[in-house]
Amino acid sequence: MTKKKLIILASVAGILVLTIIIILIAGSCGRKQTVKADSAENLALLAKNAISANDYGAFQSLFTQGTREKVSQQSFGTFYQSITDDALYSNYVLMRLENGQMLLLYISGPDSQGLYHLQDVRAVSSESYDLFNH
Fold first, then answer.
1. How far is it, in rounded angstroms, from Cα 31 to Cα 29?
2. What pLDDT is stored for residue 114 in this prediction?
3. For 8-24, how does the pLDDT look when each residue is reduced to its tens digit (9 = 90+)?
4. Chunked in runs of 10, what are the mean pLDDT values of the chain (134 residues)?
5. C-alpha to C-alpha distance for 24 and 46, rounded to whole angstroms
6. SS (H, E, C) 62-91
7. How many H-runs (helices) and E-runs (strands) does the chain carry?
8. CA angle centred on 45, ends 123 and 108, rounded to 5°
9. Which residues of 25-55 are buried (b: 16+ CB within 10 A; e: fewer)?
10. Smallest Cα–Cα separation from 105: which of 127, 96, 113, 63?
11. From residue 40, how far is each of 12, 61, 90, 93 by CA, in Å?
12. CA atoms of 117 and 110, how far apart (whole Å)
């Protein structure tokens, strides 16, 4: 083969490789990543998305069977009216002590080492017990 033919062949091969790369990048950009309710954070994100979309059915689907009617459509409407782009997601864990007292732990993390830490602990007032007794 002549030098000219080799240059043309190399150019065509380069164009083919570049075309394949562009197709792969374009295909992956258009692909939707779905969020599943596989963590507390993802569940909160799904709830915010349902509220933002004013999708009461999607919001209800996040509840356990038998608790889907806990939030009425009217209450849901007030959430929709209050929604903004910014939302703060916090991790709280309820701890029930043997004597019946309840503590609400505010947890931060994970940090750069993958560890979680307590930010605050509050005793739950007896007036609020009904909220947590399920």
1. 6
2. 77
3. 665 665 565 656 666 66
4. 64 62 61 75 87 92 85 89 75 88 85 81 87 74
5. 29
6. CCCCCCCCCCCHHHHHHHHHHCCCCCCCCE
7. 5, 3
8. 40
9. eeeeeeeeeeeeeeeeeeebebbbebbeeee
10. 96
11. 51, 15, 10, 11
12. 8
Angle (CA) 70-107-127 rounded to 5° is 45
Instruction: Report d(CA 73, CA 51) in Å as an integer.
Output: 11
Instruction: Report the alpha-carbon distance of residue 88 to residue 102 in Å, rounded.
Output: 24
User: Which of 100, 101, 118 is CA-nearest to residue 109?
Assistant: 118
**Strand ranges across the sheet with 91-96:** 91-96, 102-108, 117-123
Q: How much is the pLDDT for 54? A: 92
Burial bucket for residue 71 (CB in 10 Å: 0-12, 13-18, 19+): middle
Q: How far is CA 84 from CA 43, 49, 55, 75, 98, in A?
A: 18, 11, 15, 17, 40
Write the CA distances from 75 to 21, 34, 44, 123, integer angstroms.
49, 27, 17, 28
